[in-house]
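Table S2 (continued). Query chain:
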Amino acid sequence: MTDLLLRNGRPWMPAQPLETADILIRAGRIERIGADLDAAGVETLDLDGALVLPGFVDTHCHLDKTLWSGPWVPNTGGRSLAGRIANGEGRRAELGIPNPDYSANLLAAMIAGGTSHVRSHIDIDPEVGLAGVEAVRAAAARHAGRVDVELVAFPQGGLISRPGTAELLDEALAGGVEVVGGIDPAGFDGDPAGQLNLLFGLAERHGAKIDIHLHDAGALGAWEFDLIIERTEATGLGGRVAISHAYAMGALPADDQRRIADRLTAAGVAMVTCAVGDAPVVPLRVMHAAGATLALGNDGIRDLWTPYGDGDMLRRISTVAFRDRLLADEEIELALAAGTMGGARVLGLSDHGLAVGARADLVTVEAPTPAAAVVGVPTRKLVLKGGCVVARDGQLAA
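Corresponding output:
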């Protein structure tokens, strides 16, 4: 680990004044934050007034699916969920995915943009088996020390409706995958009780976390929120369960949003929003008022689901803020908090952030305020992982 003194930065610590301070890093952790720190013999970098942010946390992406850095592939998946799933599975072999080179090259771009932690959902089904797990692990190994990657065993094509998939999820978790995933227990899999029985049973057996894709809209989606919350409370898995996308939440009446947010808080269930296309965004102000955990992610990046995306979490934070019509600076900072500390809570990173004792996963940008950084999406001047500089000016460090 590198001992380092960052001089003349402006660390962002929500609810505290934005003031110039030095940050002393020893053994990869923040030892002190304050003015005119003395650290003889420690390498010093002058930030010249740059804003200092916690490393970004992408809590929802699909590294196994990406075509990043490969030839351009026109999208032929259509607009329906079933059509995109079928297209993604049907063209995997033709296009050579999952591909560890594509995944590693995408991770490189994410690191250069300031992402320090990633949760990636990995397709698992009887046709592809655990190949995606192997590919993404190989990609992550190339960037050891630059980014941490947590994997989700994800039944993209269905769980109850896809015989053999449950056994593969069990195998993946036994092999060290940290999270078990689900998908639309009612709307896609057609058996909400059966899917939740399986998911929570696997999580309890393996000590895993749970992250469920939930695209179902309206009353159906809201009903499934309540089912997941109830199951979490019954199993005592609070703090280990997340609902990804949660499209219904963004379109429900305000009273229902507040009721669900309060229930999420009490049960320790998080939500993850990605601002995908025109899909509803989980309301940040409602979640914040309730004290509920909300995190952000890029979802698909240049894959068979979408030709869009670049892995830049600051750009995704900006997109979420725009889509949720966050206008005042303090509102815009809610999106920044979700893309950093919210993601850290979902991943269980108790030592993430700008605080004494925290791991020095940091990003610096030239911007007058945090809100200006979100809106302007400036180049990341420095990216630190565990106190080591891993990227400068938008490029990986040598």
